[in-house]
Recover the amino acids of this structure.
């Protein structure tokens, strides 16, 4: 079984589609994750529910001219469940930010507090390879 370690990775590491984005610093990821949480937390109670998370992501997808798909919702739900480790259907702000930072830390291969485009590509390749190996092991 694969574990998803991030929420809103598109928002946290967004860049132009065909050009390398600028390097991303850990403090910026923390700030952006907290800001995105605050926008998604519709009732401002410091807890993100699955419904609030779905509504926030649907709004982002629609703003970009897209339409949410069943496959997209499955990924969204897997990400939510990975952070909601207590299986309460609720993610506190601190856990949301910690998940974004864990995703960042996994991509910061030289641990200097900055993820370069090269590091991001290499980390993604490693994660794909590990996931493939986990899927093979689970199938046995």
């Amino acid at each position: 079984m694969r574990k998803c370690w991030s929420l809103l990775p598109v928002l946290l590491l967004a860049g132009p589609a065909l050009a390398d984005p600028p390097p991303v610093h850990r403090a910026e990821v923390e700030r952006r994750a907290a800001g995105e949480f605050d926008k998604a937390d519709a009732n401002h109670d410091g807890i993100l529910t699955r419904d609030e998370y779905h509504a926030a992501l649907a709004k982002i997808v629609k703003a970009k001219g897209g339409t949410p798909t069943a496959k997209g919702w499955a990924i969204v739900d897997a990400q939510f469940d990975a952070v909601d480790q207590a299986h309460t259907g609720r993610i506190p702000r601190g856990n949301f930010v910690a998940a974004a930072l864990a995703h960042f830390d996994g991509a910061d291969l030289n641990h200097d507090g900055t993820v370069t485009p090269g590091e991001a590509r290499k980390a993604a390749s490693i994660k794909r390879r590990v996931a493939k190996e986990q899927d093979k092991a689970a199938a046995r």
Observations:
- The chain has a mean pLDDT of 87.
- The chain is about 60% helix and 5% strand.
- The two ends are 12 Å apart (CA to CA).
